[in-house]
């Protein structure tokens, strides 16, 4: 038999490797330390990319880029102001009514709870929120007082938190982030190839050409995805609202907004949006109205799947639904609303990068 000899295993780690590892760890730590700034920058980039197709279309009419960007932002500001002053008051009041009825809805569908889970905490939370919103929207005379609502809402949050200072700082922190996002996105959009120039500054020269080429592909997809998703959400929300109004379902505005927002979730979004609507219908008039509501959502879902979604979302982004769902969950957990907003664009970027890696491997094989 051959004589077996033990061999010592030597692992050599150079100082350069240690230095690179330390730099990577520091970069990751720095990103988390300035997470809010990173989120503001990324959101600004996505917004600038989202309106790029609109600007390009306006440029074809020989409108200067600066004028096109200003017109786009003015239109968005007018639409947002119209929504705030004419739609938000009704939505807030309808939300208070909906939350006030949540305990009733939970009790009504208790037979659908085979595990007999206790929803007392959820019912109490809904009741407190409903009372808080109702108090915040309390009218003086007639009509909705937006100023009074904000004052009362601030007082509610002040009483519920550690103090008014924390609430004010949190509120103005959000305002500051919003203003920065608007300013940065405008600055990036008003420049010809503004996002590309920004990336050229922060990306090493070695990877500059590839990164700029990758971003050009992703930018187009992000722009059309944003427009398509907005169109999809508005269309579905309007259809849901009209159908629910026709059949006399309560809280139609809230349920329509839920349906519009849940459109960002592929496959399961419409199902999740239908659950509260069916519960409202069942609590309101029993099985008959619940089945009608379920049928309404099914018809809208089929219309969406066969006519709208394939045209405006699926073919543009090209990201598998499962990846989108995971990205939404991860984005929401890491960064809240902005994380959800950025999840699909980042997933699109990663999918393009992975495709390039696969092509590179195949070309070398």
From TrEMBL:
This is AI-2E family transporter. It is a multi-pass membrane protein. It is found in: Cell membrane. The keyword Transport applies. GO terms for biological process: transmembrane transport. Coiled coil: none annotated. Belongs to the autoinducer-2 exporter (AI-2E) (TC 2.A.86) family. One of its GO terms (cellular component) is plasma membrane. The chain crosses the membrane at residues 12-32, 38-56, 68-88, 167-190, 224-247, 253-279, 286-303, 323-351. It comes from Candidatus Taylorbacteria bacterium RIFCSPHIGHO2_02_FULL_43_32b. Its main location: membrane. Keywords: Cell membrane, Membrane, Transmembrane, Transmembrane helix, Transport.
